[in-house]
């Protein structure tokens, strides 16, 4: 008996799908896993309070996301740490979580790491950021809506955008 010729899977070229639009109109809902993504915007005109450096805040992107809630939370918290006059001030406001994204801060001559809590809801991201901002005395720093970057930082919002945001850098 002669053995059957088995070709490796890589010998069959995959069809080129790059020209097919990948949006909800062309992909059946049963084929697409529903992944929750959020986008939050930074109000760079907000009152930064005594802990955040306005010049550093100005260097942050206009928004974080769209991405999973845990990633957006990590980006926003890390942005606050990186924009602080003293990273230790922001870092010590946070408590160790388990299984979430990691953040870091450098103070006292060392790098410190902390895991954020696991995030499963948009509401949790919003509550977490509001509480952090209240502690930092900069209550209107994050928004669920695009912010026109004009003078006067009185913009207020209570949610986090759940649709994709366009990249505006």
Automatic annotation (TrEMBL):
Question: What is the protein's major site of localization?
Answer: nucleus
What biological processes does GO assign it?
negative regulation of DNA-templated transcription
Polar residues composition-biased segments: 149-159
Keyword annotations of the record: Nucleus, Repressor
**Localization:** Nucleus
Among Gene3D superfamilies, the record links this protein to: SLED domain
Pfam families tied to this protein: SLED
Q: Give the residue ranges for region: Disordered.
A: 1-24, 149-169
Ranges of residues in domain SLED: 37-145
State the Gene Ontology terms under molecular function: chromatin binding; histone binding
A cellular component annotation (GO) from this entry: nucleus
Q: What protein am I looking at?
A: Scm polycomb group protein like 4
The organism named in the record is: Nothobranchius furzeri
């Amino acid at each position: 008996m002669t053995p059957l010729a088995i070709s490796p899977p890589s010998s069959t070229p995959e069809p080129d799908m790059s020209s097919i639009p990948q949006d909800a109109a062309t992909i059946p809902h049963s084929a697409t896993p529903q992944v929750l993504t959020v986008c939050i915007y930074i109000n760079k005109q907000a009152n930064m309070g005594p802990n955040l450096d306005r010049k550093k805040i100005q260097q942050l992107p206009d928004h974080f996301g769209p991405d999973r809630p845990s990633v957006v939370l990590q980006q926003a918290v890390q942005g606050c740490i990186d924009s602080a006059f003293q990273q230790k001030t922001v870092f010590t406001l946070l408590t160790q979580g388990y299984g979430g994204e990691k953040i870091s801060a450098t103070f006292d001559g060392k790098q410190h790491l902390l895991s954020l809590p696991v995030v499963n809801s948009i509401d949790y991201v919003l509550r977490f950021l509001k509480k952090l901002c209240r502690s930092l005395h900069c209550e209107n720093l994050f928004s669920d809506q695009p912010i026109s970057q004009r003078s006067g930082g009185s913009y207020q919002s209570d949610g986090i955008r759940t649709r994709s945001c366009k990249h505006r850098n």
